[in-house]
Request: fold
Amino acid sequence: MSTENEGTEVPPAPSAPPVPVDSPAASSQAAAPQGGAPTPPPPPAPPMPPHGPGAPRQDVVQSGPPSAHAPAEAHAGPYGGDAPGPHGATPQGPGSPADGSWPPPPPATPSYADGGAGADWGSSYQQPAPKPGGRRGGLVAAVLVAALVAGGLGGGLGYTLAKNDDTASTTVSASDTGASQVKRDPNSVAGVAARALPSTVTIEAESTNGQGGTGTGFVFDKQGHIITNNHVVADAVDGGKLTATFPNGKKYDAEIVGHAQGYDVAVIKLKNAPSDLKPLALGDSDKIAVGDETIAIGAPFGLSNTVTTGIISAKNRPVASSDGSSDSKASYMNALQTDASINPGNSGGPLLDATGAVIGINSAIQSAGSGGLGSSGQSGSIGLGFAIPIDQAKFVAQQLIKTGKPVYAKIGASVSLEDTTDGAKITDQGAGGAAAIEQDGPADKAGLKPGDVITKLDDRVIDSGPTLIGEIWTHKPGDKVTITFKRDGKEHTVDVTLGSRVGDNS
Reply:
């Protein structure tokens, strides 16, 4: 399976309805004609010109494949994209129109689409353009005035009715019964969220050229290490700027300790970290069962500290994900699948179990794509979110803190990344013309050859190259695994001791 990075722009909100322009009273303010002559009827008002809300612009970013052979999966990550400004003709000012007609045409409908950049996973961030002066402010002011007038009228009527009502009130407030203090179960969603939210952060990453994105992270230890996704902080890798903001509003500068593009895991560290940090408890992702309740925390579309719920809808889901760019390298995970709402900005945030323990890192979403499920191609929650199991992420994070570089398990063979259901085929040639089987590597020592099709790793069925990579990366270097493969139509089994690869580029 492949997904695409969460990188679609925030659609503008629908335009507000036009405020109707009341016609002045025709006869109440005019002087009566002399001599008791009958009052002539006022001339009919000309018909109001047709008008309506401007069509807000909505740009859609499509994510591309991570490589020529591996389709891309959608990350849950940085925000960005231009937000269109208000549409429609400029409303006329006070006074009669040039042709003297009355009433004047109603004001054009402003659009809400001028409100800042939204939060997307994987798309570039541009500093928002200055908002047009006075246009949205005027709309808000008009709405507030109307609300105040309506509120005042309602208040006056309410007072009059209450004054004339001799019937005693029968309503009872919660404070009268002593039930105003709601006692929540510590293991309820509200109880878990109250404990976990103070240990989550909204991360903003900005490159040296001003591009950047936003995502989520959570406190990993008391030394100030924060764990998140690699694609959340990728813009700040080469001398960029990182900040982390807690739900209480406290904001800290941060630095990248290490990042693993293949695993899509990164660790950052707060500068001048507070002494009262509370790391989130880490659970056991291997013991999670399909149907278990989940709680996700993140900043979907820039809305920090958002809590959503769902269940584990599948385990061991092979996922290849990327940011959708043409030169992007894929990340591979044997993911936990959840139907908790995961959207752009949730990337790097914790996926919790019912007790509040972290069982995964929210990382990717499946996008419906253009025309799918009624979608116009925008990445958003359709109930298919994917998280990196915490057992794997914990090992990666510890390696990054220790050495600053990721460590990958490997078999020392190049496999095809084409979509297939037959297995992972060892290619005839490796990347850049290298040998498909690494000399003296694990596969070579086990007797594997180009053309062999790997169908199982231990008891896990292997249907493609990405599935094999994701499964291998759930292991550590030095682990022994049993590989089942086909050669010339015959099935064979061999034991392999996994090797080690340090860094993303080696």
Remarks:
- The first strand starts at residue 74 and ends at 75.
- The two ends are 26 Å apart (CA to CA).
